[in-house]
Amino acid sequence: MGRRRRRGNGSEALAMIGVAAVLAVLVVPRMTHAAEQQASTLITIGVCLLSAAAAAGALAVWHRRRARARADALVLVALRQNALSPTEFEHALAALCRRDGCTEVRVVGGAGDLGADVIARAPDGRRIVLQAKRYRHARSVGSQDVQRFGGTARTVHAADVAAVVTTARAFTAPAQAYAAKAGILLMAAKPLAAWESRTGPAPWE
C-alpha cells in the first residue's frame, strides 16, 4: 500500500507562503519582463491556493470542535437523566473535564486500561486520572474497587489527581478509609451532580 500523505495545517501553509515570497525576491528580479510577469502570476496563484488550503484546514477543525461540543452536550443531558451506559458515563466525565477547561482529555477505559478511564490535564497543568464506576444509585462502591485503582493511579498513570467517580450513592467505610490513606478522591452521585451543575467543585479543585 502507498503511504498516506500527511495533511497540511495552517503553520505549514504559512511556511510555504514564506518560501514563495523569498523566491519572488531572489528570482523575479533576474528574469525578463515577460518571464517576470508569468512568475509573478504563478506565485500569486500559489499563494491563493495555499491560503485556501489553510482556510479549509481551519474550517475542518472548527467543524470537528462543533461536533464534539454537540456530542458533549448530549451526553451531559443523559448524565442528568441517569441514562448512560458504562462507556457513555466515561465520555460524560470527559465532557465535564473539557467543559471546565481541561486539555489533553482522553477516554482510555476498556480492556487493559489498568484502572484509568479518563486522563486529562487540569487547567493548572496537573495530570488527572479518573476511574468511572457506573453503578445503580442504591448500591455503594466497595474497598476492592478503590484499591485496584489505587494500585495503578500513580505508579502506572502518574496521576497528580486520582479520583473514583460513581453514580452510586456512596462509598463504603473501608473504601473511604483506604482512599484517605492513598490520597484518592472519592466522588459519589451527589457531589457528581454538583460538579455537573457547577454548584460544586471539580475533582481537581
TrEMBL record:
UniProt cross-references to Pfam families, sorted A to Z: Mrr_cat
Gene3D superfamilies the record matches: 3.40.1350.10
Membrane-crossing segments per the record: 44-62
UniProt domain Restriction endonuclease type IV Mrr: residue ranges: 83-195
Molecular function GO labels: DNA binding; restriction endodeoxyribonuclease activity
Top-level taxon of the source organism: Bacteria
Keywords: Endonuclease, Hydrolase, Membrane, Nuclease, Transmembrane, Transmembrane helix
GO biological process: DNA restriction-modification system
SUPFAM superfamilies per the UniProt record, alphabetical: Restriction endonuclease-like
Protein name: Restriction endonuclease
Organism: Nocardia panacis
